[in-house]
Amino acid sequence: xxxxxxxxxxxTLAVRLAPVDxxxxxxxxxxxxxGSLFVAMRGEATDGNRYVAVALKLGAVAVLTDSPTVFExxxxxxxxxxxxxxxxxxxxxxxxxxFFGHPEQVLxxxxxxGTNGKTTTAFLIEGLxxxxxxxxxxxxxxxxxxxxxxxxxxxxxxxxxxxxxxxAEGVRAGATEAVMEMSSHALVQERVWGLPLDVAVFTNxxxxxxxxxxxxxxxxxxxxxxxxxxxxxxxxxxxxxADDPSAGMMVEAASGCEVWTYRVGAREFDENAxxxxxxxxxxxxxxxxxxxxxxxxxxxxxxxxxxxxxxYNLVAAMATGMARxxxxxxxxxxxxxLLPVPGRFETVGNDLGIxxxxxxxxxxxxxxNLIGLARELVGEGRxxxxxxxxxxxxxxxxxKMGRAAGDGSDLVIVTSDNPRSEDPAAIAADVLVGLQDxxxxxxxxxxxxxxxxxxxxxxKAGDIVLLAGKGHEREQVSRQGSILVSVPxxxxxxxxxxxxARSSKG
Length: 506
Hints:
GO cellular component, one term: cytoplasm
Catalytic activity: UDP-N-acetyl-alpha-D-muramoyl-L-alanyl-D-glutamate + meso-2,6-diaminopimelate + ATP = UDP-N-acetyl-alpha-D-muramoyl-L-alanyl-gamma-D-glutamyl-meso-2,6-diaminopimelate + ADP + phosphate + H(+)
Number of helices: 17
Shape: globular
Number of domains: 3
Mean pLDDT: 93
CATH superfamily of the largest domain: Mur-like, catalytic domain
Pathway: Cell wall biogenesis; peptidoglycan biosynthesis
Function: Catalyzes the addition of meso-diaminopimelic acid to the nucleotide precursor UDP-N-acetylmuramoyl-L-alanyl-D-glutamate (UMAG) in the biosynthesis of bacterial cell-wall peptidoglycan.
CATH architecture of the largest domain: 3-Layer(aba) Sandwich
Binding site for ATP: 114-120
């Protein structure tokens, strides 16, 4: 693609054309190769303009920059195409869309935002679409799906260039749908700039990421951006959890959308609302049943998922499926076949009579919900909760997570999560503040491997062991000397090893 073609329609302050062919778009100088257009932009951690010389040395033939100084320096080179923009991330999205042939205009995109439930709801939406033979792209925290191809996801919401590349791959594979999680960071940072949404889903809002957003108000406003459109028109339909305290704010933000709400509870309807209600909820280990009352009719829904929180996720996904043209009966049939999402109330089988669950719960609200579900299922047994809090993240939620664990558990084992650059003992000390004055027995074991073994060793038949905080993650990040390192760590594998070791001892 010629340089003048790739910058066509892009919002620029100045352009100096050059007769060069662009073979790729990159924002990371390390990925730059011969024929690349390098997008040099200011980011949160570094300024890409510092690496323009490196990109040119590696073969870049064009540069898009948000630095007037860099632009002026490059205009003296007739062999380099260069453009100056005001907003680097917006321009990255625009040139990437041009380069990849605007796949975002081909795919019908459903996006999910919220503190908890994003991953599960996105998986469920994609599963419902797949159940009626629609080909989809899924971008989520755990995995990326391109029709039948499944790969690990490096980020919850990648940069726009990477999203558009995946979308283009999906279009080539015959996809007509896309489902993605939209994190608050990605919305504020405009990593999803220019992606037109057909359906936007809000799950809930609880304390998280205040290290970045500062206040709950700012966090909520970040989520609400999705309903206004990020460089696009608002979504066609907004699906909003009416039971969440932030629902009103989201509905207001969705004034340009058709608003559908969902909730769990009685069948009392707001005549002015388009509602989906789960009523008569019945819960068990490995199954859920409820009556789904919708504007399209009422049906009994049976699912292999566990817990009230998954009732919310299922209703959100089914409403989204109907927004995408599935019938109520198709959604009910599809819901019955949906499997649990990895790392979300994932049970680890054993013959010891112990229920062992791995779950991603990493906020006080998610942990409280997880423990509440465990308490419903455990009967006369004990709830043993092992968890930690991530380092270099919002410290104020640590005592709240401690309180949530202590209020509902019989035994709490405080351990390490991803301490990153922080001292795990200091993180645990913050957690222990919230455990004061609770009735739970409390232990501290900062070695997560040992903590998992301890939780499973002390469990008796009929108990439930919750290994919370990391879920699907397959590594642990901590400081070694002056650098951060990632080492392989899988809660499910650790639990299996601990169970095998206990079984072998009789």
